[in-house]
Amino acid sequence: MKASASTELTTSLSPLMGRGECDRTSAITRSLLGYGALAGPFYVVVGLVQALTRQGFDLAHDDLSLLANGSLGWIQIVNLVLSGLMTIAAAVGMHRAFTGTPGGTWGPRLVAGYGVGLVLAGAFVADPMNGFPAGAPPGRPASISWHGLLHLVTGALGFLCLIAACLVFARRFTRQQRRGWAVYSAVSGLLFLVSFLGIASGSGSAVVVLGFTAGVLIAWAWLAAVSVHLYRTTPKISS
Q: Is pLDDT above 60 for 68?
């Protein structure tokens, strides 16, 4: 009798235990996706506050990465690292949200690649240039340091990962017949690619630098929008 009662109790509790496990999984996934919505605004706000307050920095000619130089450079280094870690967390959330669905592997991996690129770009500081920080020679440096080279390489690879992620997500949304999201993802990726090619050409003109900054803003906005979309479509915790 006791064994039978115990079996019946376990059987009756099994659905509740399964639902509780599902609730925890959904809660973790949604929390991770939340970082995707926070990463971009965090990076942009911290970067722009520095750009507008640090003497000698010119948004029309200087990339935000240069802010990692000087006595206050640690602020931008922390900005890059934390933004990268939040992006990686969002990528993990995307992977969890896509578990068991077709085509859900490479998108999150590429987003994670962008996050890793940000972290490494913070670890390897860009070379001073264009007279920033104070005391740096005008124009580009005559030679590039090892950490400046690694900054360029890791940053470029990270950007390419995010561009590819936009296109992979566009294909996934197309398969899901979400035309609006597919077009938005593809256009975001292509615009970021154009802005990246412009800055990679070595031109320091205001049009190219501001165009690249606009491309970065577009990319961050896309990441936030997709993260919020997946956050909303991930089941909530049951009451």
A: yes
